[in-house]
Amino acid sequence: LWSIDRRKLILEITETELLDHHPTAMDTLARLGMKRFSLAVDDFGTGFSSLMQLKRLPCVELKIDRSFVADMHRDRHSEVIVRKSIEIGHDLGLIVTAEGIESQEDVDMLREMNCDQGQGFFISRPESRQQVNLSYIEGFAA
């Protein structure tokens, strides 16, 4: 495997996984944080985690679940959840990523909300492991 700076590799744990395995997960995540791994909470808003747990995690990124992004144009509650999740993430010093971006309208609305990053079919389709490996090698050689 390549020699990759741990701080550039972001390990994701879903909010639901964190809740299902709370004591073990918190201990493991704390140890990974001490070893300088970067962590992200994925699918934020789909579980019932306390904000205290989010505060305690050694994470650098908060990823808003695609279900809220998909509904934010037609459902006021989803729009408020996305907007407030971005604010909470920023207030905690986290990078905020919106998942499930499927249109320019999504991009425009998330930019207006000051979302840091996005992912979804509108930006790029998922790539095979071979394509990711090739992209990494080409980027490394450049």
Alpha-carbon distance between the two ends: 19 Å
Mean pLDDT rating: 80
CATH superfamily: EAL domain
Low-confidence sequence ranges = none
Shape: globular
Helix-and-strand structural type: alpha/beta
Number of discrete helical segments: 7
Based on the structure, what is the oligomeric state of the protein chains? Answer: single chain
Largest sheet: 5 strands, parallel
Total beta-strand segments: 5
**CATH T-level fold name:** TIM Barrel
The CATH architecture comes to Alpha-Beta Barrel
Q: What proportion strand?
A: 15-25%
- Helical content stands at 40-55%
- Which CATH class is shown? Alpha Beta
Q: Tell me the strand order in the biggest sheet.
A: 1-2-3-4-5
Radius of gyration: 16 Å
Give the SSE map.
Elements (H helix, E strand, L loop, with lengths): L9 E5 H6 L1 H13 L3 E7 L6 H6 L2 E6 L1 H6 L4 H16 L3 E5 L4 H9 L4 E3 L9 H13 L1
Parallel strand pairs: 1-2, 2-3, 3-4, 4-5
Short synopsis of the structure:
This protein is an alpha/beta fold and 142 residues long. It contains 7 helices and 5 strands.
Written account of the structure:
There is one protein chain. The protein is α/β, with parallel strands linked by helices and 142 residues long. It has a single domain (6-141), classed as TIM Barrel. The chain is 49% helix and 18% strand. It is built from seven helices and five strands. The protein has helices spanning 15-20, 22-34, 51-56, 66-71, 76-91, 104-112, 129-141, and strands at residues 10-14, 38-44, 59-64, 95-99, 117-119. The protein has a five-stranded parallel β-sheet. Strand 2, helix 3 and strand 3 form a beta-alpha-beta unit. It is globular. The chain starts with 9 loop residues before the first strand and ends with a helix. The mean pLDDT is 80.
